[in-house]
Design goal:
This protein is mostly helical. About 70% of the residues lie in helices and about 0% in strands. The chain is globular, with a radius of gyration of 21 Å.
């Protein structure tokens, strides 16, 4: 009968902490509906991998030898060996994105680039706190506001903090509706947030929509070759959407593929959330740095918009700069909400969407730049 309570006696306080972390992620997914497709499997997986002698990770069993665990196998095959899960998810993301608002107003590309400043400032901050430069770069990419990019970059660079980085990246993405209003209001006045921007829908030709993902992939590949897998899969998904001859595949990529990969990615990431690796002072510091990265991204975008307004005849609502982060479409919705809050007739959604999809491209290019520089 000893085996019945052997597992209970083997539980460590660090594992108990991870049960609480897993429970918190599940609560956020169900009660608050923050990224439920991702946070729920991450939370449940965090509990599974931290059960003593858990069968979901590889174990050495007396009299049996080594037994393979499904979650560890998924991690080693789908993330560690090929980064397949994050990259396949980019196909689904690309198929979801309509780049029309961006193509109709190309200057919004500038806001996508400006809102990545938090990445590089956080790399400097992480290095100053004593993290190895590779780990600092991996922590900084949390500021991409793009979970798959953060996961892929930290995995390729071989960071030992993949679990904490993944939790920070995906959790803060889910918390964008809370984080961004705070950051934006720090550096704007109500009058600035109420600034109206007229919107005239400029028609974008089908040829332009088809050529755009091809040209972006080529340019990004020449400028930052390490970004080809990131940008290429994102643009491939968008090409499926825009070509007009693969409608059923486009819908499959947007729904079945994206949902399935998100589900597998969530529970697979949990392998890097084992207590002995996750419950450390460094993890808490990484979570703080990740939050700082998100705030700096938003502030950087707003400040850039204000500077641009000094030289432009047609003024831009400074909040549009904050929409340049990659968290699509949550960030655009936040800007629309804040605009209406300041003035009930102030609708900024289409401008914000353009900046938001620019942020999608800029974040993966930034990830490629970091890979090219630090690999």
């Amino acid at each position: 009968m000893e085996f019945l309570y052997e597992g209970l006696l083997s539980v460590t306080w660090q594992q108990v902490v991870m049960y609480c972390v897993g429970g918190l992620l599940i609560w956020l997914a169900i009660q608050k509906q923050y990224e439920p497709a991702l946070l729920l499997p991450m939370g449940f997986g965090a509990i599974l991998v931290n059960l003593p002698m858990s069968g979901v990770i590889d174990q050495i069993t007396q009299g049996v030898g080594e037994t393979n665990g499904i979650i560890q196998w998924l991690f080693e095959s789908g993330i560690e060996a090929s980064e397949a899960f994050p990259l396949l998810l980019f196909i689904g993301i690309g198929a979801m994105i309509d780049f029309g608002p961006l193509l109709a107003n190309p200057k919004l590309f500038l806001f996508g680039a400006a809102a990545q400043v938090g990445i590089f400032l956080t790399i400097i901050a992480a290095a100053a706190f004593g993290f190895d430069i590779v780990d600092a770069a991996s922590i900084g990419i949390i500021g991409a506001a793009d979970g798959p990019t953060s996961l892929l970059v930290s995995q390729v660079l071989g960071s030992k903090y993949i679990g904490a980085i993944a939790v920070a990246a995906y959790s803060y993405m889910a918390l964008v509706p809370i984080i961004q209003p705070f950051a934006i209001k720090l550096v704007t006045t109500k009058k600035e947030r109420a600034m109206k921007m007229p919107y005239a829908a400029n028609k974008v030709s089908r040829r332009t929509r088809i050529l755009f993902p091809i040209v972006v992939s080529i340019v990004a590949g020449l400028v930052a070759p390490a970004s080809v897998s990131l940008v290429g899969f994102l643009m491939f998904g968008n090409l499926i959407r825009e070509c007009g001859v693969l409608e059923s595949l486009s819908k499959t990529a947007q729904h079945e593929l994206a949902n399935l990969i998100t589900l597998l990615l969530g529970i697979t990431i949990s392998f890097s959330m084992r207590a002995e690796q996750f419950v450390t002072p460094d993890t808490l510091l990484i979570l703080c740095l990740g939050l700082i990265a998100f705030v700096l991204d938003s502030i950087g975008g707003v400040v850039f918009a204000k500077i641009l307004n000094l030289f432009c005849k047609n003024k831009v609502n400074p909040m549009i700069g904050a929409a340049g982060i990659s968290a699509f479409p949550m960030s655009a919705r936040v800007i629309e909400k804040l605009g209406v809050e300041a003035d009930k007739t102030n609708h900024l959604l289409m401008h914000a969407v353009g900046a938001n999809v620019a942020g999608q491209i800029a974040s993966v290019v930034a990830g490629g730049v970091i890979l090219g520089f630090f690999m």
